[in-house]
Write a structure and sequence with these properties.
By secondary structure, the chain is mainly beta. The protein is built from three helices and 18 strands. It is globular and about 60 Å long.
Length: 263
């Protein structure tokens, strides 16, 4: 039976993708090491928004699955990226007044300050600190404007960064980089209407999370690379604590932007 033109195009595109993927991995020895570690744990790797469970020697099975947006909020609850066709939900209570890394990648660091909540033993996310290259962004749960490089933003303002952009529309802050789109909103818990907190969603852009050769990590970020193994997160939540809002001094840090020389 002859294939239709549409099927031929699909087969050709899949072949091109497989060849590109194998070339991408083979040209980066450090990435192969990370993939082998994940592979040994029975996990999968997300590359170019595709999930494959065979990538070391050859691609045997290719699952065309788009990772849905991940995120977190409330007291706080997390929704991980799609991994092997499944999307996990989990809680990380943390400790009050401590700062934890949410997503760590080569040019992006996303941290959250946990604040005490009325509910015993629970916390909420009350402030976010984000580094993109040499730029910093911070937003609090109150009505104060977000700040970019310590300068308050204006409503409906769009700021272009060297490695991305920041937009502020009402209660929503949108941050875009080469690999990610992050949406942050100020919310109130329905059961405690006077308790304000920050929610966020993260989606992966079309080029995927490995275009910079670094697999992401963090309380949420690791679910995009499949490196968490059998547990929801690697290690203990204390392993993700950083010393300040823009800190990168935690066990699984991936933040290491390439310095840009200026004459």
């Amino acid at each position: 039976m002859q294939m239709t033109l549409k099927k031929r195009i699909v087969v050709i595109c899949m072949g091109i993708f497989i060849l590109n993927t194998l070339f991408f991995v083979s040209s980066r020895p450090h990435l192969i090491k990370e993939i082998k570690e994940c592979y040994a744990s029975g996990s999968v790797i997300v590359i170019n928004k595709h999930i494959t469970d065979r990538i070391i020697d050859k691609v045997k099975t290719l699952h065309l699955l788009l990772p849905a947006a991940a995120g977190g909020g409330g007291d706080p609850h997390f929704i991980g990226f799609v991994n092997a066709g499944k999307q996990v939900t989990y809680d990380v209570q943390g400790d009050p007044n401590k700062i934890y890394n949410i997503l760590s990648d080569k040019d992006l660091q996303f941290n959250a300050r946990f604040l005490p909540f009325f509910k015993k033993g629970a916390n909420i996310m009350g402030e976010f600190g984000i580094k993109i290259g040499s730029s910093t962004i911070d937003i609090k749960r109150d009505d104060s404007p977000p700040r970019v490089n310590n300068k308050p933003m204006k409503l409906d303002e769009i700021i272009r960064l060297e490695d991305g952009s920041v937009s502020w529309y009402g209660k929503n802050l949108l941050i875009k980089t080469k690999e990610y789109s992050i949406s942050i909103s100020r919310e109130q818990l329905s059961t405690y209407p006077f308790t304000r907190h920050l929610d966020f969603t993260v989606s992966v852009n079309k080029c995927g999370v490995l275009q910079d050769g670094v697999a992401p990590h963090g309380l949420l970020g690791q679910t995009a690379s499949g490196c968490q193994g059998k547990n929801t997160i690697q290690g203990n939540y204390k392993d993700y604590e950083v010393s300040d809002l823009f800190g990168d001094d935690f066990k699984y840090n991936r933040y290491d932007p390439i310095p840009k020389w200026v004459c």
